[in-house]
Each structure stands twice: as structure tokens, then as C-alpha cells.
Amino acid sequence: MKIKTSSDYMSSLQSINPVIYYKGEKIKDVTLHPATAPHVRAAAMTYALASQAEHHDLATATSHLTGRKISRFTHVHQNVEDLLKKVKLLRILGQKTGTCFQRCVGFDGINAVYSVVYEVDEKLGTDYLERFKQWLTYIQDENLMVVGAMTDPKGDRSKNPSEQPDPDQFVRVVERRNDGIVVRGAKLHMTGAVNSHEILIMPTMAMDEKSKDYAFVGAIPVDAPGIIMVFGRQAGDDRRDKLETIDVGKPRFGSVGGEAMIIFDDVFIPNERVFLDGETEFTASIVYRFAAHHRSNYGACKTGLMDVLTGAVSYLCQIQGAAKGSHVRDKVTEMIHLSETLYSSSIACSAEGVPTESGAYMVDTMLANVCKQNVTRFHFEVARLAVDLAGGFIATLPSEHDLKSDEVGHLVKKYFTGVADIPVEERIKIGRLIEAMTGGTALVESMHGAGSPQAQRIMIFREGDLTKKVSLAKALAGIPSVKPKQEAS
Amino acid sequence: MKIKTSSDYMSSLQSINPVIYYKGEKIKDVTLHPATAPHVRAAAMTYALASQAEHHDLATATSHLTGRKISRFTHVHQNVEDLLKKVKLLRILGQKTGTCFQRCVGFDGINAVYSVVYEVDEKLGTDYLERFKQWLTYIQDENLMVVGAMTDPKGDRSKNPSEQPDPDQFVRVVERRNDGIVVRGAKLHMTGAVNSHEILIMPTMAMDEKSKDYAFVGAIPVDAPGIIMVFGRQAGDDRRDKLETIDVGKPRFGSVGGEAMIIFDDVFIPNERVFLDGETEFTASIVYRFAAHHRSNYGACKTGLMDVLTGAVSYLCQIQGAAKGSHVRDKVTEMIHLSETLYSSSIACSAEGVPTESGAYMVDTMLANVCKQNVTRFHFEVARLAVDLAGGFIATLPSEHDLKSDEVGHLVKKYFTGVADIPVEERIKIGRLIEAMTGGTALVESMHGAGSPQAQRIMIFREGDLTKKVSLAKALAGIPSVKPKQEAS
Amino acid sequence: MKIKTSSDYMSSLQSINPVIYYKGEKIKDVTLHPATAPHVRAAAMTYALASQAEHHDLATATSHLTGRKISRFTHVHQNVEDLLKKVKLLRILGQKTGTCFQRCVGFDGINAVYSVVYEVDEKLGTDYLERFKQWLTYIQDENLMVVGAMTDPKGDRSKNPSEQPDPDQFVRVVERRNDGIVVRGAKLHMTGAVNSHEILIMPTMAMDEKSKDYAFVGAIPVDAPGIIMVFGRQAGDDRRDKLETIDVGKPRFGSVGGEAMIIFDDVFIPNERVFLDGETEFTASIVYRFAAHHRSNYGACKTGLMDVLTGAVSYLCQIQGAAKGSHVRDKVTEMIHLSETLYSSSIACSAEGVPTESGAYMVDTMLANVCKQNVTRFHFEVARLAVDLAGGFIATLPSEHDLKSDEVGHLVKKYFTGVADIPVEERIKIGRLIEAMTGGTALVESMHGAGSPQAQRIMIFREGDLTKKVSLAKALAGIPSVKPKQEAS
Amino acid sequence: MKIKTSSDYMSSLQSINPVIYYKGEKIKDVTLHPATAPHVRAAAMTYALASQAEHHDLATATSHLTGRKISRFTHVHQNVEDLLKKVKLLRILGQKTGTCFQRCVGFDGINAVYSVVYEVDEKLGTDYLERFKQWLTYIQDENLMVVGAMTDPKGDRSKNPSEQPDPDQFVRVVERRNDGIVVRGAKLHMTGAVNSHEILIMPTMAMDEKSKDYAFVGAIPVDAPGIIMVFGRQAGDDRRDKLETIDVGKPRFGSVGGEAMIIFDDVFIPNERVFLDGETEFTASIVYRFAAHHRSNYGACKTGLMDVLTGAVSYLCQIQGAAKGSHVRDKVTEMIHLSETLYSSSIACSAEGVPTESGAYMVDTMLANVCKQNVTRFHFEVARLAVDLAGGFIATLPSEHDLKSDEVGHLVKKYFTGVADIPVEERIKIGRLIEAMTGGTALVESMHGAGSPQAQRIMIFREGDLTKKVSLAKALAGIPSVKPKQEAS
């Protein structure tokens, strides 16, 4: 691993030159700009953990390609143990950053593409796997951060890619050259994009025969010509931009991953970095496997966030002299219960993992979808309970400027003092932390990251094997079996 | 009514001089300052409606004191019809502002104090009602906005007012003079405080014998000597402060009411404006009646907000070409269902209203508490559904500066275009509206405004008449009746 | 009112001769047969209340046809007060019987048909209203119990009446004679059918032009030639059939209404009892109005049942020495909260009632549907909470034969004794009551009575006025209004 | 394994003579009596599976005591794989019986006692483990069914064992002899008791010093002198007693496990079968470990039941021509989602299993409690959804006697016919299956089996490590660490 530490990572980002816009202006250095620095620090934690003895075993792995020690975030899962270690690593990172640390999306992209292109080659005699292994060895050895780019704008959602008035609403190949392809379009909501080194472009959904130009996979450095990123707004970004220290809630880290749209304004990808091109029948597998891996992660990292939130309200109730109330205890119990229910599914879909043809391991698809579906419910409910226990002051608290003001600072302090032995600043800081972690952006990410709720429901229904369930019911009801065609629902 | 129109109201605010701090600096003119102006505009809507023929009947009433036409927000409810008209008025105001319009808190304070001091006078031979009527006639004739000030800081919540290390954690009388009283302390979360004319101070809970100094009611202009307000932060306040026009979501109105802490730094209240002083046994009634009225309102104004949110996601789904999906329709149905369930309780507690001894009408206490309890659940769930249907872009959308940028504006527009015939700006504006209405502050207010969830549960249990319910069950189970003492739970 | 008392009602049932099958055999006398007697007693309570001074005002009304005092259950609502009184009456009846008292379905049928046939006559010049008034006067004067018969078997639900392989899956006119019509088919789930005097047949859904023969309304005595009823099973019916006294839970009343299928095996209905015949365009109104009235009732009668259940678990917790637990108190609070939320909607849809063209009053359709929708959720949740608090013994308790046994009775008593001063029999009786009220049939009825959940959702969406809501959102987002056609969702 | 097959098991039960009362009379042969035979058949399935090649690996294990092949239900878990295989076995048994198969309770008792008495011996130098191994070898070799007996009557729950007016409200040692102990008391809700061979008696909760006589563990055959069982009632037991074949829903199996109270009327237990006697400080461990194992199982067997229920409603919707409806599909998806969420926790707490000092493996306590807590919610919700989709007919369907009646059978059939090609009997059978699986007893068992909901919440709070969570929150909020004593909640 070339990039070994947080500061190696920072330096590496300073040595590349992606085009990034934010609030109408270009960002020069993502490690310094107040809007992006908190996200850089969160991603840096994935590097930091690998060099800490305590976390080394979880944060690293041995490459099945080279036998060398690599970051787990660049690893292809080789067994159930790999899947379980990943889950534990993600929960710890969630606990330590209280936010998205952004490296899963590339990690899951790598695992999805690896196992599918193996099958493409097997079936069609292509050489995509070899290309991919070469690129992946480079990623592993350098220890680069990869953004997995899947979500297209989609334009009018009642229409397929080829039916859109604007054909660029899905990223597509606009030119095929001898040495590579030229692509155009955009990917939205790209977590960690502005502080990644590489982009792994994947199709956004199962493609039909008419959509060959949309059915490709390729990798490209983030500062390749034609790539433009626009960094999105988040709740509370202005407070960070103004370098406030208390009102941001989490002084070192962001609310969520830091998302950007990536625009591909006719970007050239050389052949050795093209891992699929036109094999439409394999796009569904890439999407489903990426989605299953990604959904399985949410039950781990978000549990880490909920651990923080549970601790925060617990401490706040102590500060306010309310921790002994039976309803407080009951709501804290509920927060823990929901968190651990989520975590269960992450563990379970890993424990039930299975090998693909390539030898790479996949999580259980049903349980991974169940996991993410619960995230879209429970994170909101945990936030609701946190808001309940925190009290109204998280929405009405004066600013840190008032707290520090000569005229009114002493009054703000006087009237926000809780139990005698805890400084009032701690109450305010914890209040701001809860505000930051229960506000808009954090929850939106839990709803839509790794696919919107309805996407999981479709998979859950599909994986539910109703034919078998119907036959179980008939057996118990004393109904003789009938032909399978009548059993389908 | 002296103040008749929105602009009368604006002018009236410019003619007074309250001391208001915000982000460490003084606010000179609340009608112009970007942080407070949106809230002023929302409150102004309560004046505007009274002068519109369409809403005149709901927005005004006839004073039972003077027979003159007054704003409904200064009226003492005389019958069930008054209570029902109030509910309908609040829903319309919620629909038109999408936020808190702030006048309920004074309105409910007036109604609570009126009916209780009648009973104080009856029992103790005091003359509080006469004083109160005189003040109220002034309020009605001038059509002033009153902030009802109830919530104290409370310090260590495991301790009573008299046990606190700092005796000022509840507002109290620190000096009694011949001509009035001097009070010290603070009231938190004061909705509409910075753009009100008068403050009606009420005790925050039932007081025991030791807490006589905390058991008073008084009214005072917002710019009386010794009053200092500190205006709190809200999600998105920086966007408003920077005069953004799209990213604020609601260009004309705020996210919530605009709350301030009001500090009483030894404020003198003359006797004619003191409406209770030391009669501790009546404090519970003031709190419960105020709470019941205030809780009943939430099912109306918040339904108005949910109407807006339902419309917003509905339109957004149209723009994205997704409105026909069965799951979209089902979630919109659920949003409506929850909204109307809330509204039911507001209507019901009004329809079941009863006269107090004074002739003023009270809502049904049980149903009013049930109403607010559901707000603390359903507003979050409606927001969750809105976030689900809106899609992830509300958390990752580039800023309006990027949208208007020469370099990337055309790309942002290109890739956020939905169905062909609706301008992309509409999608973005609706997205920002949903962001503003589902983010932190708005929901915190629904949770804690008019009392935290546990406060309602205590009332619901208390009003539940378990003795009667036990006897119903015993009758049906064939158990002979026993002495009442065994029936209590 | 000819039938004035419970015993008048019993006698009246003994004087008619409906054909009723149950468990393969004919029931001779429904007032004596153990399967039907509990339901007869519950319906009798509607007569009993009318003769009790305490309930007289709620239980009776003054006929707008004759000016005579009548049972409220035969009344056409003349104003909002009538609607509100009905709600209160239903809750009391629910509290006193702990079950369905069965008279609503005819009551609501009368109100739906009355207001619709007025409009038919107005539009088409028919004389249905006159016929209906004559029949209704007879019902009112005699004080008869009417079963409103709406739900058809429907066969294959993906097909319309006219597409069914068996045309009798919806009740239809098979012959038209000079003096009347002959009808064939069946109505399912007919609550109170076996102890009613008259059947009011109504169409089950909006009918199209091809379904003229299915679009009729008529009334017929329950013992008319060709009518056959088959009384359905309920949870616990065997215990009642064996005349057990403790294990039935409610010794005097049934679990639910007592439902029968009514088969019309070519039944003649004379013209003067035919109130619609072929006017398909009015069927939707009959169904919607009946449904709205009926749905509005569920929030009242079921609240009565939940009151009983809340009392039962409360008492049981006292007996077991557990009533002081904070989680017990919290769950009881939740049971009350959900009950009163339901009740709110019943009150609200009545308070918002509006006159039809005929002068008869309708409940608010939206709120009535919201009300029933919540019943389908909350009754289950209240039952779940009751089961939680009751403890596992309600599913494992030995039978009353063991309790009374010489060999083991003393041991059963010894080991089911709770706190010292309450007889063990009371614990067992209350346990059986809870078992009876939380088991299968009672909850199924709350789910499907007055229409399945999806039926309410369709109405809620339809009544939701999305066009208006979209325009509210656009106004707040600063989007200029556009042509209405683009606003529809 | 001496008992190898279902019929071996049946014969073995016929060779013993427990004293069993039911409905006031003695049961002679539990394999023949209609009340108990369905439960015997369910337990027999655990024997049957062991002899089927397909299930052999899951249903058997290799004894760590003897190296011999044994039933998994008599095995002490030796590793995570054992825990995972158990989970899979339980789901299959749930699918095949649709009910409780009763062997877990003894299984879990064996595992709890084994690991705890190892620790007792280590600490106190006793020889309990040797005694226990000897007994367990006998159980394994014979392949006996053991009922784990834990739940005491508890009398007045606000009092400890030693404070009860009747000291027998918890099972206790009433006499100590040289060769053994004599015990008195009762155990309630004993699943599978009447068709087990042996009883393993355990204390019901943590005992204090004063409760030495209550702190014992012992094993005894079910037909030992002084043991009297009273078999409890269940919903639908009368239908089974009358040998109905359709209306019972599940012709071969019961609704739940078949619970009995076991009365110990001064029962002698010889020393070699006494595994704890007075070591009060170890009672908590026995209870917690038993509870954790038992709670972990519920997410597996109940998922099996929900699989059946999902299949049943799916098929019913096909029969009624409704399977294509989007709301049907959505509700079926929800049923699957909730089922698999439960299953996740069973898998997860097993995958996270850890060795005890004895080498026996324990499930993860937190996740096992989370698992059971969700059962108490989701089984009700799945049942509610099933009732929703099934339609009202499951509560109003005529009896099978009517279906078979010469007079009305053809009419019942005619009007319950669904889509053309499926016999009406199948609709009725599936309806009855759903009725049986959603009615009272089945759900009560999911609520209270393995401990009531509050018992899990106490464990979840206790295992939640709030001190750590508080420190995570403080770190992120930028608060310096403080002394641990201030962190406790």
C-alpha cells in the first residue's frame, strides 16, 4: 500500500487536479476547503484505522491477486469471514466519524464488477477480467480511493434510456475508437467523488437490447479531461463554510458523505480500462450485486451512527437531570433495539454469504435488501426518538456568536446550565451534535443511498419464493399438490 | 382594530424598540432583517386574512367585551362554533405560509388566563379579571400580537424551582413594590417573540406552596426596560441571511416560527398588568388549559403544512414522470390519511368543547392531548414519506449559484430536467421546498411545541377514567361490583 | 314504537320464522339457541337503552316523517347534532356489550338509500322516495330491526358482475313481473341477519350499463319465501354452544355481531318495496354514502370495545400486583391514546356533516374513511397491547371444568391466585374476557366490516384534492401558476 | 438414539403414565386423544427429520460427550456452526408443522444448565457437571424429549418468593433427605409437557440470599409420583376435540405447542438428578442463558410459521382472482420483509456466538433479545396483513357441517367459488388455515413465549453499553473525556 496514513491520503489528493465547482466557484484544494475538508477527514479515517494495531485485522486484507497486504476497501471478498469483518469495520468507522466515510461505494463496485465480468468472459470469451485484475492490482497497490458511479439522472422516469428526449440522461458511449471509448452523461449523488482518485462507471439498471451504448463499465481518474464535478449542498454547509466550531455539531466531520454530480463531457476511456461494452444481458447482475453489497453495508455503518446518537441523547439527559425517567430509559432502549435490529441483518446477510462462480463472495441478496429497507425506516425513527429526548432547544438555541458575546454570552450560559457539575458548553455541543445528526441530509441519505425503498421491495418480493411458500401452506391445509403453474402468484 | 393590514402590522413593529440579539449582533428592524423578516411575513398573514372577504368570517370575531369586530386571535371563545372556526382558520394559514404564523401562543394564553382568573376572583375575592379585561380590551382594539411566555429553562429537571442551585431557572418575582412587581428569569423557545407587541408571562407548571414567587401572571410590552431577546438558529438560516432566493425553499416564509429566548433582567410590571401573584393552587389550571388549547391547534396548522408537503411531492413525482406508480399513489394516500387523522382530533376536541365557569369555552382536554401526541408521530412519518417520494436529490442538489453559473449552469439544468414540458427550475424549487419542510427545525417544533410527548401521555392517562373502564370490564366478565377503592389503577 | 323493550324484541323474533342453518342443522328459536342468543341480547340492548331515562335522549329521535318518537336506529339524520348523538350512543353500546350490536348496518342503509332515491326521483321523475318513506314509516312505527345487505360473493374478483362464469355471484333480478321482481344470489357476512325483521338489499358497488339487473334496491322480511340463511362460525362458538359460563369470556354477549350468509333463492319483492331498479348511475352513490356512514360508526363502537379491553387489562394488572409498573402505565396510556384517536374521527366526521339534497345529513366522507382506516390498524394494536399486559396465561389457562374439578380444582385455584384480596375466579374471568376480545373473529371484523382497508384508501386518495394541494406548494415555492391540466396527479 | 422414528416416539409415550387432566377429565393416551395428538405429531416431526437424508445433517449432531450420533435437540452447541444449523432446522420445522414442535425448551435448558454448572463446580468445587453429564448421556442415547420447566406462577408480582403469602408460588425444596430433595409448587405454560419424557426444573429468576430453597435445578421423569399436569385450553380446541377435519385449519397439527401447568405435589428428586441446590448467585446466569438461547430460536421457528402464512394468503388471493393487485403484492412483500427481518436476528445472534468457560457456545445475548422483541411485534403485524388480504370470510364462513349438508351444502359451495379452475374446498381449507394461524393462541405464544416483551427490553438496555456510546458522542462533539462515573446513565 503506497498510501498508508491519513496524511499520505491528504497529500495524494493535493497532487491531482479534478475540476470541482461549489456554490458557483471552483474548489482548489479539497483537503483545505471548509466544504470538503470534513469529508476528506472522514475518508482519511479508513486509512488511519489500517495503521492502528487495534483495527489492523479488520481494516486490511491479503490480496487474492498478489498476496500482498491491502486495504480491505480494495479487497475482493474471499469468504464469509471477509464479509463479517467488513461489517464490523463499517460499524466502527460509523462510530468514529458519525458520518459516511465514502469508500464503500467503490469497494462494492469492485466486488460486483469482478464477479460479473468473470461470468461474461466465461460465456462470451472476452478478456474483461484480465483488464479488471490489472486495474485492481494498481488500485490495491497504490491504495486508491474509488468512487463507484452508478446513478444516472434518468430524466423522465416513465421512459427507457433510448426513449428519453435527451439521450444523455443515462451515461452512454458516444464514440468508439480503436484505442477506447468516449462517454457522455452524468452520475448524480456521487458520495466521496471529490476526494476520490478514480471513478468506476457502471450502468444504473438492467438494459435492453436497444440500450447497448448504455451498457458499459469503465474506470477513469477523477481528473481526466472532460470530467466536471459539482458539489452539492447539505444541511448546515454554510456553518462549515464559515468555519464555525460549535454550531456545526461535528467539528471534524460532515453530516453525510459529501455528494457531487459528476459530468462526463465527452470523456475518453482507453480500452484497458473498459470492463464491459455492450453486453446488455449482464447489466442486471452488476446492478443487483452492487446493490446487494451496498445495501448490506448500511446496517453496519448506520448502526455506528445510531450508536453515537444514542450516546448523545443519553448524555444530554444526564446533563438535564432527566436520565432516570422511565420514559427516557424506555426510549433509549428502543433506540438500541432498532440499531441492533439493523445490525442483525448486516451480520446475517454476511454469515449467509455464498461464493459466485469467480470465487468472490456475495452476501445473501434477500437479507441485504431487508437490511436496507429497515434503514429507511429505523434511522428516521431513531432520529425521532433522539429529537424527543433532546428537547426543543436543538431548534431554538442561540448561535455560538451569542454564546461568546460580551453582551449576552453570560445570560445564554446562565439559562442553558443543567446539572451543576457539567459545563454548559457540553450541553450546547451535544445539542448541536444531535441537531446535525437528525436534520435533513443525514436522513435523506439513509432513505435513498444504495437505492430507494421501492427498489428493495421489488427485490424482496422477487426473492421471496412464493411458489414454495404456497406449497407449504397447501400441505398444512390438507390440500393435495397441483401443477406448479397454478402456484405462481 | 387599529392594525388592520399587513403593512399596518409592519409599521407597528417599526415603531417599537425591543432589544434583540442574533448571531452576536443586534437586530434593528425585524421587518427588514433577513433572519426575522420571513417570520414577520408569516405573522402578517394573520392580519391579511382578516381583511380578505373570503376569510373574514373565520379570521375575525365579535368581542364579548366590547361588541366590536376584532381579530379572532384576540378573542375569548364563546361557543363551539368559535372553536371550530379557529381550527379552520389555522389550517388555511398553515396552507398559505407553510410554517408557524405565531399568533396562537398568545391567543391560547389569553383564553387560559381569562377563564382561570375568573375562578380565582370567585374563590378569593381578588380583582384579577377586571384588570385582565382592561388589558385585553386594549389588545383587541389595537389588534396587537401577544407572545404567550410559558416555558422556563428549568435547570436541573430532577429539582423543583425552589431546589435549583440557581433560583432564576424559573421566572420569579424578586421584588414587590406598591405599584407592581419586579421579575427575573428567562423564557425559552418563544415563538414569534421578536415580532410581537406584548408578552403575557405565565407559570410553566403546577407550583407548590414553596414556590409562591414563581406563581404569577403578568403582561408587559416587548420593549420594556430589562427585556433582552436572543433569536435562535434554525436549519437553513444562513441561506436566508445571505438572501438566497431558491435554496431557501420558501422564499417568503420561514421554516418554523422563529424562536427567541426572552430574558427578564429585573423587569418591572405595574399592578394593573399583574393577573396572578402567589395563588399557587391555580397555576396547574393555567398550564393545563393553555396546553389543551395549544395542543388542539397543532392538528390544524400542521395539517396545513402537510397539505403543502403532499402537494409538493405530488407535483415533483409528476415532474419526474413517476406519478402513476402504484407505490407513489399509496404513499401519497398515506400522507393524506395521516394529515386528516390529525385534523380529526382538532375538529373533535373543538366539537366536544365545554364552557368554563367564566363562560369561555375550553376544548376537550383528552382529545386535545391525543391530537398533539399524534403530531409528534405523524409529522415525522409524513416527512419520511415525502423524503421517500422526493428522491435523494434534495440532499445533493447543487446550489443556486451553480444553477446560475456561466460555467456549469447549463449542465446542472440539463441533468436535472424531468418530463419535457415543465421547466427544470420548478423541479429545483419544489425540491428545495421539500428540503426546507422536512429538515430539522420544522420537525423539532412539531415534537416539542405545546409540550413534549411525555407531557401529553401523562394527561391522557390522567383523563382516561380507568375506574369506569374497569367497571365496564367487570360487568361484561360477570364479576360483581366491588368497592371503588379496589378499582383504582 | 311498537317494540319498546328487550323482551318485546325477543317476543317479536319468536313470532317470525326465518330459515336458518348452523353447523348443519336448523335453528328454531334464535332467542334461545346458544349460538345466536348472545347476539340477540346485544341487539336487545339497543331497545333497552331507549327505555332508560339516562340514555333516552341519545337512543331515540323524533321522526321527520311522522313527528313521532322513534328509535334512533330507524332515524334519518336531520342535522349535525343527530350525527353526534349517534356517535355517543354507539360508544355506550360498545361499552355495555363489548361487541357488535348489529343495528348500524340497517340504519346506515336507510340513510344512504333515503338521500339517493330523493335524487333519483328529482332527476328521473320516479317515485322511489314515496315508496321508501312508506316502508320506513312502517319500520319506525314498529321499531323493526333491519339488516342492510350489501356484500356480494363476487366470485372471481378480477371480473365484473356480467363477466362472471356464474352470473349469480352478485344478487340480481332474474325476473320482472307486473307486481314486482324476483331476485337471486347471496349476501355474505350479514351482521345481525338472523335476528333482524327485515332485509334492505343494496348493490355492492358502482355498476356499469351492462349490469342493470344488478342495480336494484329492495326490502323484504327475513322470513320471505326463498330466503335461506347460514350462520357462520366464530372463534369460541363451541364454548357458547356447550353453555359454558366462564370460558366464553363474555357470558351474556358474543364476540362479534354474528354473521350469516343470506341466500336469495328466487325471492319475490313486490313493487312497493322496490326502491331502485336498473338506474345504474346511482349505485355508486348508494355504496359510497352507505360506506361513509358505516365507516364513521366504527370509530365509536370499537372505541367502546377498547374501553372495555383497557379496563380489563388494567384490572388484571391490579390482580397480578403489576399495576404500578411504568411500562404497564405506558401501555395502558397507549391503549387509551389509540382509542381516543379513533373516537376523534367519528366525532369529527359528524361535526363536519353536511346536508344532502334531500335534507338528510351525511358525515364528511374523507374523515369517515380515515376513521375506518385507523380502526383496521389500531384495534389490532390495542389487542396486541392487551395481550402483552395480560400475560401468557390467556392462552394456556385450564378449562372451567378443571377449575371446578374435585381432583385438580383446588390446585388450579392455588396457582392462579394473585394479590391476596381478590378472588382467583375474577382473575380467570378477566383473563377469559381478554382472550375473547383479542382473538380472531373480533379483529377480523374490525379489519373488514364496512369495507376492507384498500377500499378506504381509494376513497382517501380520491377525496384528497391533489390539484389544490399542488397549487399550495407551487405558491410557496415561488412557482407561477400553470394551467390546471398539468396539475392533476 | 433409541427413539429413531415418529412411531418409536409414539410408542415411547404410550409406555409411560403421566397424570394429565383436560377439561375436567384424565387423558389416557396423549397420542390418541384429539386434544393432544396434534401436538404429539408436531413433536414427532423432530424425530422424523433426523431420519430423512435431506435433513439429517441439520437434525442430528455428534455428542461431545460420547462421540455418538444424537438428535440435535439433545446436543450441547460446540461452535457457531452448531448454532447456525439449529436456526435452519427450526425454520424448516416451523414450515412443516406451522406450529410449535416443543423440543426447544428442553434443548435450551440443557445448554443453559450445562454451561452454568461447569462454572459452579469451578468456583465451589461441587460435582454438578458430572451428575448432569450422566443424565444428559442418558437423554442423548435414549433420545428423550425434555420439557424445560422455568415459569413459576409468581402470585403477587410486586413481591419476592419469600414475601408471598403462599410460599409455594415459586417451586421450592420443602424437604432435604440424604438421598435427595422433595419439591413443591407449579410451573405454568409448559409447552410440550404432556408429551415429554423428562422435566428439567430450573429457577424462574435471579434469587437473593433469602431464597435458597427456590434456587435449585433438577430432572425428573414426567410420570414421577406427585406430578400432576393440567392441559390448558387453546383457541379452536373444541373443533379438534370433535374431530372436525376442515374447520380445524391444520388437520394434522395444533395451533401452538400445547401448554400444561405442571404441579409438583411434593415430588422426590434423587441426588444424582439434582444439578444445583441453594447456590443462589448462579440462578441469574441460568435464567439469562436459557432466555437468550430460547429467544434466539423464535426468529427461526416463527419465520417458518410466517412462511406458511405468506403462502396461504398468496394462494387465497390467487383463488379470489386478486393476486395481481398492487396493494396485494405490496402487503405480501411486507409479510416477507418482516419474516426475513426476524430471521436475520436468529442468524446474527448465532453467527456472533461465543464460547462459555465450559466450551459450550452461547448466542449473542443482545441480538437474541432483539430477535424475540421483534417477534412480539412482527408476528402480530404479519397476522394483521394476512387477515387484511384474506378477507372477512375467515370470520363468517359456515361450518364444515353446512358445507357437507344436503340442504345447504350446494349453496355454500356455489357462493364461495372463486376463480374457475380451483375447487371451492381449497378456498375454504386455506381460509380455515389462516383463521387458525392468526387467531388468539398462536399470537399470545409469540408475545409471551421465552419471556414477555418487557423482559427483553431490560436486557437490551443492560447490554447496550451506554458508557461507551456516550464517549463516542463526546468525542465527535469535541468534548474532552471525563471521569467514567459521570458517564453512566
Automatic annotation (TrEMBL), chains A, B, C, D:
Residues 285-478 form the HpaB/PvcC/4-BUDH C-terminal domain. InterPro entries: Acyl-CoA_Oxase/DH_mid-dom_sf (IPR046373), AcylCo_DH-like_C (IPR036250), AcylCoA_DH/oxidase_NM_dom_sf (IPR009100), HpaB/PvcC/4-BUDH (IPR004925), HpaB/PvcC/4-BUDH_C (IPR024719), HpaB/PvcC/4-BUDH_N (IPR024674). Residues 5-276 form the HpaB/PvcC/4-BUDH N-terminal domain. Gene3D superfamilies: 4-hydroxybutyryl-coa dehydratase, domain 1 (1.10.3140.10), Butyryl-CoA Dehydrogenase, subunit A, domain 2 (2.40.110.10), Butyryl-CoA Dehydrogenase, subunit A, domain 3 (1.20.140.10). This is 4-hydroxybutyryl-CoA dehydratase/vinylacetyl-CoA-delta-isomerase AbfD. One of its GO terms (molecular function) is vinylacetyl-CoA delta-isomerase activity. Its EC number is 4.2.1.120, 5.3.3.3. Keywords: FAD, Flavoprotein, Isomerase, Lyase, Oxidoreductase. Pfam families: HpaB (PF03241), HpaB_N (PF11794). The keyword Lyase applies. The gene is abfD2. FAD binds at residue 191. It comes from the Bacteria. The keyword NADP does not apply.
